[in-house]
Amino acid sequence: MKLKETFSTIPKLYDKARLDYPAPLFRDILRYAKLKKNDPILEIGTGTGKATIPFAKTGHPLIANDLSRSLLKIAKRNLKWYKNVRYIVSTFENAQLPGNRFGLIFCAQAFHWVKPSVRFTKTLRLLRPGGTLALFWNYNYYDRGIGKMALAIHKKYSHAKGDRANVIIDDLKSNKHFTGTKLKIYRRAVRMSHQEYVTMQTSYSWYLSLSAVRKKQARADLFTMVKRLPDPLSLPIKTKLMMANKKIICRNTASVPSNIGI
Prior knowledge:
The chain has helices spanning 11-17, 23-33, 53-56, 69-78, 116-126, 145-157, 165-174, 194-201, 205-208, 212-226; strands at 41-44, 62-66, 85-89, 102-108, 127-140, 178-192, 233-246. By secondary structure, it is of the alpha/beta class. The protein has a seven-stranded mixed sheet with strand order 3-2-1-4-5-7-6, with helices on both faces. Helix 4 links the parallel strand 2 (62-66) and strand 3. 31% of the residues are buried.
């Protein structure tokens, strides 16, 4: 099983354990995007819908795309009041989607799972001219405090690669087919119990990819770690948001890469 497929094995735990996103982030995306009246929206990697509701509330047609049927089943329940949402079970790479249409494509905590050769070529072909790509990730601070201790446990048990978001952000900044790139950072503190913190850590792919024996050992190490700290914890979280618009090229789309199908 690929790392990006591991979340399908824990849909309820994933929905319960994963953090939400700061409300100002959604307002900033919608202000930046300046959606036209009939602009559709696409979400890449919907999961259980943690980031979907603020966009569904706009009333714009919204396509929620995820490779996991089990995660989307929970998303449908979480979004049951929004009839403007349509669901597509597929990898983003293989999803059949209309080209040159979307006013906004957004992705929360998942764009690093999209193949590098597809990330920007396909989003460019799907966005209308001037349409917005918005990418965001929650970060634990792994250079201090509990984060530094947790990172040591990650490295002890897993060789899974860490932070790839910064590479994607730099790639988007340098992509000549996008313009108006804007990076915003939101900081907050989240209170959670020892149990909630361990549950969150065990919802990550580094843990899910372990054998049953090593999962048991890693979980025990996580509990040993948090027992040294106050309960509840005050966990500092940083959320990074990167936005850019597809360049408007008058009567000529030849410069948009065409080597990826939709």
